[in-house]
Queue: 2 jobs
Job 1
Amino acid sequence: MKKNSIRTKITLWFSAALILVVVLTYFVILSVSKGILQKTIRDSLITAVENNVDEVEYYTSLYSDTAANDIDYYVRYGNGYIEIDDDFLDAVNDVYTSLCQADGTLIYGENPIALDTMDLDFQDSVVQRVRVDGTLYYVFDRQLTLDGLEGLWLRGVVSEEQGETELSAISRTSLILQPILVLIAIIGGWLIAGRVLTPIRQIAETAAQIRQGDDLKKRIELNDGSDELHQLADQFNEMFSRLDDSFQAQQQFVSDASHELRTPVTVIRAQCDLTLEEQDVSLEEYREALEVIRRQSKKLSRLISDMLDFARLELQPERYQKEELNLSSLVEDICSDMALIRENNITLTCETEENIRIRGNRELLTRLLTNLISNAYRYGRTNGHIWVYLRSEPGHSFVLSVQDDGIGIASEDLPNIFRRFYQADPSRSGKGNGLGLAMVKEIAEFHGGEIRVQSEPGSGSTFMVIIQSTC
Ligand code: ADP
């Protein structure tokens, strides 16, 4: 049993609370039982005395046949006789009743504390308490009022200890049963806590295995269920999947980036080696070699600068301040500049809804549109067309789309084109390095938007950037 485990803590707290409740219950039961028992004792005392009241009668003379035929008890009193019926109960269930004169002289019946109650005043229909040798007794008196019985009293006496046997039986049963029940509850609680906490242990074990082995493919496997712990396990599994995805993306990026960087460096080195090793190199050949080196260096420097921009946008987005700007004018300016390119005799037309304003970063939005239009030129067809639209949509969003009638994208490439360094057909990419669309996606997300693409190989492609208007 681990000292600090949740299971131990839960069981300890639960046991402490249970023991407290049981002890309190024990004392409450005991005191309530005692109260009820005492009341029952007093009631039986009153009933016994009241019943005996009718069993005492007075006769002026004693007829011989009356006396002969019954077994009642007769005592001479005054000028006649007191008849005590044989139903008179002088001792029943430890309740004693005695017939006394007002000065305390006992005429009939029993009183175990007669001597001690000699001086106790008679009080009609009142329960009195007397303590004799440390024991409490209840005393109940009834004055007899029938003719001839004036001056006579019935005195009932019962000891408080009379109910003690029942009480100690209740107490004994509680003292034996309650600890057994508490023990069963504690063992049950320990087992339930263990069962309930098993998923947490499994979660912790899986997390530890992942930490030790760096194996993000591991998942927490619980039995069927849908309680909070299963939900927690699902959340953890989802988190592991995401971590795994981003870890893999990271690894992929490093490998792609190294590959992309290595190609121009290898070309430069090869060109240098070749030129240096060759004897009698002409000025023209030197020039050609330097031309190759310059081209590759440019490619390298563009690649590095694109990667840096990417890293900045991803890791330090706060470097790019947002301002309120007129997107319609920005799009029109970029289009009118880029329409001049006319690469492959492609025509660019632009239709924008006026005065669409957003909070955004001018530099990044320019980059976004420039990348999309450059791609449309690069993958467009000779004498083709590029259409740029900017319009607002219901629900405070606007759509910026760039459409071309170029080569289009194969459906199997569509899910990958926004990945960094992905090029469906590198031979057509020319100066591209596969970072353009990934950057577009990053910029759209930076502005709280998203990018979608529709494309048909041979017919052309449409890229749509959907952004919620924030102005
Ligand atoms: P690249 O520098 O290769 O153009 P991008 O990230 O801009 O990289 O694009 C990724 C790939 O998506 C390209 O290599 C190309 O295959 C495809 N692509 C992008 N835009 C278009 C387009 N307008 N028409 C057809 N294919 C496109």
Job 2
Amino acid sequence: MPVSYYTPTRVVFGKDAISELKTELKLQNATKVLLHTGGSSAKKSGLLDKVISILDESNIAHVELPGVKANPRLSLVREGIALGKKEGVNFIIALGGGSVIDSSKAIGYGLKYDGDVWDFYSGKAKPVASVGVGVVLTISAAGSEMSDSSVITNDEDGWLKRGCNSDVCRAKFAIMDPTYTFTLPPYQSSCGTVDIIMHTLERFFHSGYGISLTDNLAAALIKTVMVSGKKVLENPEDYEARASIMWASSISHNGLMQVGNENRGDWSCHQIEHELSGMFDVAHGAGLSVVFPAWARYIYKAHAERFAKLGNLVFGLEGDNEKVALETIEKFEEFFSSINMPVHLSEMNITLDEKTMEKLLDKLTNNNTRTLGIFHNLKREDMKKIYEIAQ
Ligand code: NZQ
Ligand code: ZN
């Protein structure tokens, strides 16, 4: 199966990248902008005021919609669609991270659709159009600034967290200034580090033919992010480390890490995690640092060679495949712990009693209508075992 690589987002990267915002907005013919933001970080850092002053200077009218929460909610998306329609918005600026970008992408779909925007997340319909979205990135993590994906939590009906993938939603531009991430709290920095590593790992675990260039790029990315992820905990204003992480967040999830491989990768860990963040509102990166080791421990014996290859490329491990495979998993666990990420659900105060487990599995399997994983296929009972290992 050929894998396509399509990255239409114009990236403006480096210190003071915001100086290009005016030009980018002109290129998009933006005349009325919805300025979408999260909680308080963009206001506190002064970035919100900066963007507003650029809009004013450019004579571009705007309307603001703040309040995106981590694990962005459908109810705010609906509010944004109603506001955008009322105000005649023709472009959206997502000022923030994955949550703000994903919420903006969903509003973008909704502004060009007469039906219910959740149709795109429930799989009932495929998006065919969107109002353009441009990004001013403030956290390196989800990679949404260059991805074809948006993930929304349905807070109105069952707290299902579901993704929608379509080229239609890809950001028109992404302004990436690593200095904007200096203010990130250590916990958010580490959540980002894990998510970036996982976007590459999900693709590394594809099911068939792959090329060594992509494997080597994957290893280089993971190694760099591990080193830089530690550096920013010691010095949050380490520009080089912040810049490496920021660019890694984009190329980890823009398709580069799957070119030459037989398919787009496994993605079970992400699905298993999304159900956790939907139900318990945990940070996505923290959920992943718990799920990956549990998933890997459950399946590695069936795929010792691939795990050992990863261990060799990333950690220089050598020897018997099964032994190296297990050591590789332990090394990732050690690393996640060393950047203060949880590796067990108990560290996030989550206990899965029988009733909660069954509810979680009903959601994860879409009421027993789907299995997961292309590298290793998981049925409901497998998913249960992985959650049990994760406890
Ligand atoms: O809300 P504010 O006050 O802005 O605070 C945010 C938020 O609390 C804070 N923050 C962001 N930039 C900051 C900052 N704090 C201080 N200084 C700054 N410069 O960080 C917190 C987390 O922000 P969020 O946007 O939620 O983080 P992230 O980028 O990790 O996004 C997570 C969401 O993206 C989804 C996840 O599931 C989750 O819902 N994902 C989206 C993907 C995609 N669209 O391609 C792929 C990923 O796999 C992921 O699923
Ligand atoms: Zn992710």
